[in-house]
Design goal:
With about 325 residues, the chain is an alpha/beta fold. It has helices at about 40-45, 120-125, 130-140, 160-170, 185-190, 205-210, 255-265, 280-290, 305-315, and strands spanning about 1-5, 15-20, 30-40, 60, 65-75, 85-90, 105-110, 115, 150-155, 175-180, 195-200, 215-220, 235-245, 265-270, 300, 320-325. Helix 3 (about 130-140) crosses helix 8 (about 280-290).
């Protein structure tokens, strides 16, 4: 099968289009023909070897990619609720023989897959899993933001993939949203549902936030700094929650930050994607999207240009989401 192939580990530039064996479907798995794969920072970090401690040994030649959407081709004997021909969205985490999504076919466990939203294409759907699931869990899990309609939130780093989903989800769930981004992306984040766009390059994020919400915000979702900007605590209202997205490679001293927050009656919550509820969470995301939530901007690259997409992701300042398209499946 066609794939974007990595030989061992190293910079993303080491990978190139090639061929890999088509995976076989196990009794607890589905075999999916991939329409497109989402591009995430975790992809190039994985290619550099940063995730080897989390997963079983890799094959010598392998395909990167965690996000995917496509059409079910085969269903394992123990799988229920899916049939060949179903439109699906999935996240492959490599355990149990799963494989990367920058490939024509993926074997995926049934608890990591859901029916795709009906209102968007499969190519757009491929942008959802890692960024969408992380934003969804960060916002709605009780031990994270526990977001509720009527609350206020500042999304820091709102124009990237994860931040874009966070703004859209929060707005769709009835929260009032402010967002930080570069000035060039202000109209974009407002289009996703932010009432206020704050130019983080100007420096005074807290001052701008409190001009919008003088008492501070109930929730601050840090999609950008890994908790390193401790001054963001000043933007929170009494009892507020700072929710930090893990970067894997550049996270702050979370215990010290948490202690500082606790002294001020605030709390810090550090998000690492929880795989146990992925199927249910993907279904929740689909309901929000089909209910009219504004999707992030999606830029499409063919498989032959996957390296270009990865290089752009590693360089940063990507607006919305990028996907690698393998087939036009609707």
């Amino acid at each position: 099968m066609r794939a974007f192939v990595m030989d061992g580990f190293g910079p993303a530039s080491k990978a190139s289009p090639g061929e890999l064996p088509k995976p076989e479907c196990g009794p607890d798995d589905l075999l999916v023909k991939i329409a497109a794969a989402g591009v995430n920072p975790t992809d190039w970090k994985e290619m550099e070897g940063n995730l080897v401690d989390f997963y079983p040994p890799y094959e010598p030649r392998w395909a990167p990619g965690f996000d995917g959407a496509g059409i079910v081709e085969q269903v394992g004997a123990n799988v229920t609720g899916f049939a060949p021909g179903d439109r699906v969205v999935l996240m492959s985490d490599r355990r149990g023989g799963q494989c990367g999504t920058y490939a024509e076919y993926v074997r995926v466990a049934q608890h990591l897959i859901a029916h795709a939203p009906a209102s968007i294409s499969l190519t757009e759907t491929a942008s959802i899993p890692v960024a969408g699931l992380t934003a969804y869990q960060a916002l709605f899990l009780p031990d994270m933001a526990d977001a509720k309609a009527g609350q206020t939130i500042l999304v820091h780093g709102a124009s990237g993939g994860l931040g874009s989903f966070a703004v859209g989800f929060a707005h769709a769930a009835g929260l009032r949203v402010a967002a930080t981004c570069r000035a060039v992306n202000a109209d974009y984040v407002r289009g996703l549902g932010a009432e206020v766009a704050i130019d983080y390059t100007e420096g005074d994020i807290t001052g701008a936030t409190r001009r919008w919400m003088p008492q501070g915000v109930d929730i601050l979702l840090d999609c950008f700094a890994g908790g390193s900007q401790t001054e963001l605590l000043d933007a929170l209202a009494p009892g507020g929650r700072l929710v930090i997205i893990a970067t894997i490679t550049n996270d702050a001293d979370i215990p010290t930050l948490s202690a500082t927050a606790a002294e001020r009656g605030l709390s810090v919550h550090f998000v690492i994607l929880d795989h146990r509820t992925l199927g249910d969470d993907l279904r929740g995301i689909a309901r929000l999207i089909d209910g009219g939530m504004k999707m992030p901007e999606v830029t499409i690259y063919p498989l032959e240009r996957a390296g270009e997409a990865l290089a752009k992701m590693e360089a940063g300042k990507v607006r919305g989401k990028m996907v690698v398209q393998l087939a036009d499946l609707g």
